[in-house]
Design goal:
11 strands, 256 residues, two-stranded antiparallel ribbon, five-stranded antiparallel sheet, 23% helix, single chain, alpha+beta, globular, 5 helices
Length: 256
């Protein structure tokens, strides 16, 4: 992440030599946790918690608010929406999923949920353009380059925000072809995968009702609709590599 230095629409396009120097340092087995302490086994390694830190913080904020007696709330940490209870009227909150391909405040889908987390990882959140090509911040741990599998964003509906943070990144890296089978094996959370066309695929769900809650897409332009069917199949990595991708993406959970 530091090598790419993606911030505020600017970044550094590393050479292959630069990437080759750091790729051997990407190894989850070298993150060691002993007696409540975590450390890195190899010199030059850095623990980047960007794929889970915001979700962990959101969960802790929710715990504090619940301890203070808050029963109904929407926490918006920017692409991390965490719900406390439901609306005061007993209805679920309605959360819009932003269209990662649009510069306007439009969305590709909406979900209705109670006491859940809705987290999105997408190419629109942090990126820069160099010589006409856009590079985003979700990096493939095997190539060092931004993941390029046909996805524009992945949204996870789960019980905790930390879980949603880690799963959205992992599903993005897996791609649509291998992300769906992974979900079917777990079925304790629901994904919504958006390709560059601006549509969204997710498992069957009931059509949500009610107004949109205030969040990053509160002024979205589309209306509630049934989920789109799965329309794409662009990932060509093997199952063996896919399991390793999951391990790399989720390894930092052990710190907490």
């Amino acid at each position: 992440m530091d090598l790419w230095d993606i911030h505020d629409g600017t970044g550094h396009l590393p050479t292959q030599e630069e990437l080759d120097a750091v790729l051997p340092l990407i190894r989850s087995d070298d993150l060691l946790v002993e007696e409540g302490r975590a450390y890195l086994a190899r010199e030059g390694m850095i623990a980047n918690l960007g794929a889970i830190a915001k979700g962990y913080i959101a969960d802790k904020v929710k715990e504090v608010l619940i301890d203070q007696g808050v029963a109904h709330a929407v926490l918006d940490l920017g692409h991390n929406i965490l719900l406390i209870g439901d609306k005061a009227q007993g209805q679920g909150f309605t959360v819009a999923i932003r269209d990662p391909n649009s510069q306007e405040n439009s969305y590709v889908d909406i979900v209705s949920a109670t006491d859940k987390s809705v987290v999105t990882s997408g190419i629109d959140q942090r990126n820069f353009t160099y010589e006409g090509k856009t590079y985003h911040h979700i990096l493939d741990p095997f190539t060092g380059f931004p993941a390029d599998n046909g996805l524009a964003s992945v949204t996870i509906l789960s019980n905790t925000s930390a879980q949603g943070d880690a799963l959205s990144t992992s599903c993005f890296l897996l791609g649509p072809e291998q992300g769906w089978p992974w979900w079917k094996a777990w079925k304790t959370w629901k994904p919504c995968l958006s390709p560059p066309t601006g549509s969204c695929s997710r498992p069957p769900a009931t059509k949500p009702t009610g107004r949109s809650s205030k969040n990053t897409t509160s002024s979205a332009k589309k209306t509630a609709r049934e989920p789109f069917p799965c329309r794409f199949c662009v990932s060509y990595k093997s199952v063996k590599i896919s399991k390793e991708r999951i391990k790399l993406s989720l390894s930092f959970q052990k710190i907490h």
